């Protein structure tokens, strides 16, 4: 009887895999410093990663001279193999991410203020209508890398450039106007914005100027107060600390129950809220369900848009 020798556990003669991205970046830039900048690592970390590979292989991958580096023939050969391997992994991950429509979890990146003041209060209704789909909500703003961040979709205010390889679907236009507590408004002399304290956010410092241009208002504040985040400026308005620029949908619920009023109404800001995806929403049934629900909520908000008070 012969013997079967399994090679399942055969040890591969591979270099440290975690070091390969550092090597690839250093080889592409022909610079350890530029590789470190790209990967947000130190120069020493890149140097150690390359040294680990060289020690495992027993050959030099770079010629080092006068703070510059050039690939050796062995380095050139390893670079070609590394690029093929990393590109293959990247393509596989993207394909898995794009077409995993059977997952019971949908990861949603959403602007923090929108998430806290509009989306989260409505997710219970979405869960009731879609008990088999859980929303993994990740508050984040600005540019997004869906694959790197492991997100299926992102909801953003489209006030920045979005990479062309994403599919961008318009959700609703933004309207905004000054909002404050009803009692606070009554204490403002002659109900004139020029006699009000204007509340600002450092994350959206031009909110008042955008509204003034859209509305034609030429008022200037009696006093001002600044907050680190837009959410805090809106909460300060609820708490009678002054008057803030309140965009729909961030203040829609407050207006609906009378916590805030919009004495000058709402004006279009020229920006839209959008859904950012890797493919058209219809390619993934989970995303399509979420998108259809979002559009339904948006229509309800539009139909119930409150007049100025």
Automatic annotation (TrEMBL):
InterPro entries registered for this protein in UniProt: LysR-type_TF_proteobact-type, LysR_HTH_N, LysR_subst-bd, WH-like_DNA-bd_sf, WH_DNA-bd_sf
Specify whether Transcription regulation is a keyword of the entry.
yes
Family stated for the protein in its record: Belongs to the LysR transcriptional regulatory family.
* Classification of source organism: Bacteria, Pseudomonadati, Pseudomonadota, Alphaproteobacteria, Rhodospirillales
What region holds the HTH lysR-type domain? 15-72
GO function term, MF aspect, one = DNA-binding transcription factor activity
Q: Which GO terms describe its biological process?
A: DNA-templated transcription
Keywords in alphabetical order:
DNA-binding, Transcription, Transcription regulation
Q: What's a Pfam family in this record?
A: LysR_substrate
> What's the protein called, per UniProt?
LysR family transcriptional regulator
